[in-house]
Design brief:
twelve-stranded antiparallel beta sheet, about 55% helix, disordered N terminus, alpha+beta, disordered C terminus, Four Helix Bundle (Hemerythrin (Met), subunit A), about 15% strand, 14 strands, Jelly Rolls
Length: about 500
């Protein structure tokens, strides 16, 4: 490695908080074990809950024990993130679980401090329980707004200030000193004043970022009104588009396999493989699908607007989706394209591995993703696989009347190669092919009066999946994408079919 690059990487590593550096050293032996970041998050949650319960007792020894448990919980909170980074075991639901645990423990910390002081008959001008509640509510608001900021501006938008390897949150490491010196009342008073003030500052910062992300919108009400009107126009246009392209309505559509085969003959497979490898399992082509395939895909997407399941995860995503189960019923052309031999052969030659379709009970195997309301987006994430083997994602542009972009970071899993940021706008027929466990990416927020629909295909090297992993995967798909009825109704149907 070039010495200057090594020096730069060493400097970046040295600038990270000391507890994160220590946590990485401690969890490195766990990298290739069965232990996942979610296990450590659960440990952090249990330690924090135990600490909060101890603080609520108010007695000297339970209070000090609680302070030590809170400190340990805060350190483990860094350990789960470090394990996720070095092991490639990040997931959307894991990120949300981590943030929710952080918020819950911090809120309970102040609430239980107030309860503990009240239990000991502490004499304060204002009820300590009320002060704890004020600080707790303010902290909850701070966490919510920071999640929203991260989804709009990335992690850089929520990065904490640091001095000499210490971040703002590291003040919690001083909690045992506060409890030993009987300074809980002073800390609670400071938190009940400081937390609301900081929440106000974060609120101002949030609105500043929202206005920057959507400069054409004057108010939230204007965004909502315009977005709903656009949804109505889109649904009304669906029927016209459906009839303009009879392939989606059941007339003989073009053979997608033949169309893709004709296109792949024009590509330089060796160059595609080289680009894919050089970019750390990532490839982008702005022109891939031929026009005779793009048209029926767009017609199918518009015809399925009434089937879209919309969802909202604070701080992470907002948008709609249609699972492979609905596609199988109403848009078989998409299913045929997913199983195209010519397409799969091209992807195999690009990644150098044998690829298999996902099992029939996987709602994520192929799905349409709809961005139809202003602000629709998905925050930074990895497409974490729960399969025994690797899972590759093929992202195809279907409709793009928008300013949305795919922002990504290459080589984030390779400590010997610096991260390489990039951004592309995927036109209809454009292609992005990548290993979801390696590519950190997001879709930027949709603007007013815009619409974007993309299609994803997932292929695996080993379709095996343990039952508990399948349950976690189904829960993630139900909460974040397709809804419980769609996911678990199909799962039960699949199980009955297997029993038969």
């Amino acid at each position: 490695m070039d010495n200057r690059l090594k020096d730069k990487m060493d400097l970046v590593a040295a600038s990270r908080p000391w507890d994160a550096r220590l946590a990485r050293r401690l969890v490195t032996p766990l990298k290739d074990t069965w232990i996942t970041p979610n296990h450590l998050t659960t440990l952090r949650l249990l330690l924090g809950l135990a600490g909060a319960v101890c603080l609520a007792q108010g007695d000297f020894w339970p209070t000090n024990a609680g302070a030590l448990l809170i400190v340990l919980s805060n350190f483990v909170d860094h350990a789960d993130g470090e394990l996720a980074r070095i092991s490639g075991k990040s997931s959307e639901i894991g990120h949300f679980y981590d943030l929710a645990s952080d918020a819950l423990i911090t809120v309970l910390l102040f609430a239980c401090m107030g309860k503990g002081i009240a239990a000991q008959g502490g004499k304060m001008a204002v009820s300590p329980t009320l002060l704890g509640a004020i600080a707790g509510v303010a902290v909850a608001l701070i966490f919510f707004l920071r999640m929203r900021i991260e989804s709009l501006a990335g992690k850089a938008g929520t990065r904490q200030s640091s001095v000499a390897g210490f971040e703002t949150e590291d003040i919690l490491y001083l909690l045992p000193l506060v409890t030993l010196s009987s300074g809980i009342e002073s800390l609670l008073i400071a938190a009940s004043v400081g937390a609301p003030l900081f929440a106000l500052w974060v609120t101002v910062d949030y609105w500043r970022i929202v206005r920057r992300a959507q400069p054409t919108s004057d108010t939230t009400e204007a965004i909502s009104t315009t977005a709903h009107a656009h949804d109505d126009r889109a649904r009304n246009a669906a029927s016209a588009s459906f009839h303009q392209h009879p392939a989606a309505a059941g007339a003989a559509p073009p053979d997608p396999d033949l169309a893709v085969a004709a296109r792949t003959c024009q590509l330089d497979n060796a160059r595609l493989r080289s680009d894919f490898t050089r970019q750390g399992a990532f490839l982008y082509l702005d022109e891939f699908l031929p026009a005779e395939v793009i048209a029926p895909l767009a017609a199918c997407a518009r015809a399925l607007l009434s089937e879209v399941n919309r969802n909202y995860l604070p701080g992470h995503k907002q948008g709609g989706s249609v699972s492979r189960h609905t596609i199988d019923r109403l848009a078989p052309f998409v299913t045929q394209l997913y199983r195209s031999k010519a397409l799969i052969e091209l992807l195999e030659q690009t990644c150098g591995e044998t690829l298999l379709p996902c099992p029939d009970n996987d709602p994520h195997a192929y799905a349409l993703y709809y961005y139809t309301r202003a602000g629709d987006h998905i925050g930074w994430h990895y497409d974490t696989s729960y399969y025994a083997g690797r899972r590759y994602t093929l992202l195809l542009g279907v409709i793009d009347d928008s300013s949305c972009r795919l922002d990504y970071e290459l080589h984030t899993r390779d400590p010997d190669v610096p991260d390489e940021p990039g951004s592309v706008q995927i036109p209809p027929g454009g292609l992005v092919f990548f290993d979801g466990d390696k590519l950190r990416h997001r879709i930027t927020p949709l603007g007013a009066n815009e619409m974007r629909v993309s299609l994803t295909f997932e292929y695996v090297t080993d379709p095996g999946m343990r039952p508990w992993r399948r349950f976690i995967s189904n829960m993630k798909d139900a909460v974040a994408y397709f809804g419980f009825r769609q996911v678990f109704r199909q799962a039960m149907r699949g199980r009955r079919g297997d029993d038969a």
